[in-house]
Amino acid sequence: MSYYDEFFRDTDSYFKKLAERMFREIGEIDEAVRSGKLKGEWDIKPIQEPGVKGYVAKGHFQLGEPLRLPKRAIDEVREPLVDIFEDKDNMKLYIELPGVEKEDIQLNATASQIEVKAKDFYKNIDLPTRDMEFDKTSANYKNGVLEVIIPKTKKAASEEKKKTIQID
């Protein structure tokens, strides 16, 4: 007997055991549904055709209690995802704020940071450079993404004064 014969015999044996187990377990699920032990909406149909044997099972069910998040987890402040891109003229920030209305976003800037507050989101974003013209900053919010474009200047901002940025 060659190596390949032995390999395929072992593989065939494995798949036969797997199929037997699958049919046994689907049968147990079917019986549990029929007896009322397994709650939910099920539609289990056996397939018994020449050369084809199996089940088609469709259903919605719940095992155990539904998942409930602790209130403190729901009330926690989330940190938005942020991408920062820089070219020779501008710094661009893309801040993801899903489910937030534009009116709920507060955006403040200092020479070294942008602060984002929106409903359950909060983040201080450290800027990679201080050479920014915050007076010419533009911000646009669309489809849950806040785009902030800050033009660069030749002189570094020296003061740490906070400035609020309007969002279009």
Q: Overview of this structure, please?
A:
With 168 residues, the protein is α+β, with helices and mostly antiparallel strands. The protein has 2 domains: 3-61, no CATH class; 71-164, Sandwich (Immunoglobulin-like). It has helices at 3-35, 71-75; strands at 40-49, 52-61, 82-86, 90-96, 105-109, 113-118, 121-126, 138-142, 145-151, 163-164. β5 and β6 (113-118) form a beta hairpin. It is elongated and about 80 Å long. The model has no long low-confidence stretch (mean pLDDT 82).
Mind sketching the topology for me?
Blueprint: H1 3-35, E1 40-49, E2 52-61, H2 71-75, E3 82-86, E4 90-96, E5 105-109, E6 113-118, E7 121-126, E8 138-142, E9 145-151, E10 163-164
Antiparallel strand pairs: 1-2, 3-4, 4-9, 5-6, 5-10, 6-7, 8-9
Largest sheet descriptor: 4 strands, antiparallel
Beta-strand portion reads 35-45%
How far from one another are the termini?
A: 77 Å
Mean pLDDT: 82
The level-1 CATH class of the largest domain? Mainly Beta
Q: Please tell me what the overall shape is.
A: elongated
Q: What is the total domain count?
A: 2
Order of helices and strands: HEEHEEEEEEEE
Output the structural class.
alpha+beta
How many β-strand stretches? Answer: 10
Poorly predicted ranges: none
CATH fold title of the largest domain: Immunoglobulin-like
Fraction in helix: 10-25%
What attributes does this structure have?
168 residues; alpha+beta; Immunoglobulin-like; 2 domains; 4-stranded antiparallel sheet; elongated
